[in-house]
Specification:
Length: 176
């Protein structure tokens, strides 16, 4: 007589399904936001600053710049939920931002290698260093953008001015 096996395979075992990859649709940008639109930033380090939208990136974020010379806002990515689009436009056809994409803003891999020891033993936090390539790109964009801004009267002063609301202002009744 033969011994009965200890394991009986279940009949309802299904083969593993193939992984279904979800293809993300490209992000939709609000109709009021086009390259050259002056935007007001509502959150973050530069809240209240007026910036120029340069393009929409693949991730759905907006590429904006101050220009840095005028109001101190560098090339940045901004979520469109945190901006107000104004009716003011700037001609940005001469500004070349083809090389700037989402990978341009990714952090370097060696910065993440700091271990637990570095965290506890480090005396002072490391200063953020802006790369020479970023500085060169900012200068190139600023030169073209400043030229376009200076062509419109009083636009430079408008971009340099901070956006604020007082207690009597009603933003829902304002025309931007």
């Amino acid at each position: 007589m033969t011994a009965t096996p200890r394991y009986y395979p279940a009949e309802d075992v299904k083969p593993a399904k193939a992984v279904h990859k979800v293809k993300q649709n490209p992000a939709r940008v609000r109709a009021s936001i086009t390259p050259g639109t002056v935007l007001i930033l509502l959150a973050g380090r530069f809240r209240g600053k007026r910036v120029v939208c340069l393009k929409a990136l693949e991730s759905g974020l907006l590429l904006v710049s101050g220009p840095y010379k005028i109001n101190g806002v560098p090339l940045r990515r901004v979520n469109q939920a945190y901006v107000i689009a104004t009716s003011t436009k700037v001609d940005v056809s001469k500004v070349d931002v083809k090389s700037v994409n989402d990978e341009y803003f990714s952090r370097s891999k060696d910065a993440a290698k700091d271990g637990e020891e570095e965290f506890f033993m480090g005396d002072a936090p490391k200063q953020a260093v802006v790369s020479d390539q970023r500085k060169a790109d900012q200068k190139k964009v600023d030169d073209a953008l400043t030229k376009a801004v200076s062509a419109v009267p009083m636009l430079e002063a408008y971009l340099a001015a901070q956006f604020t609301l007082s207690s009597n202002d009603k933003p829902h009744l304002m025309k931007f």
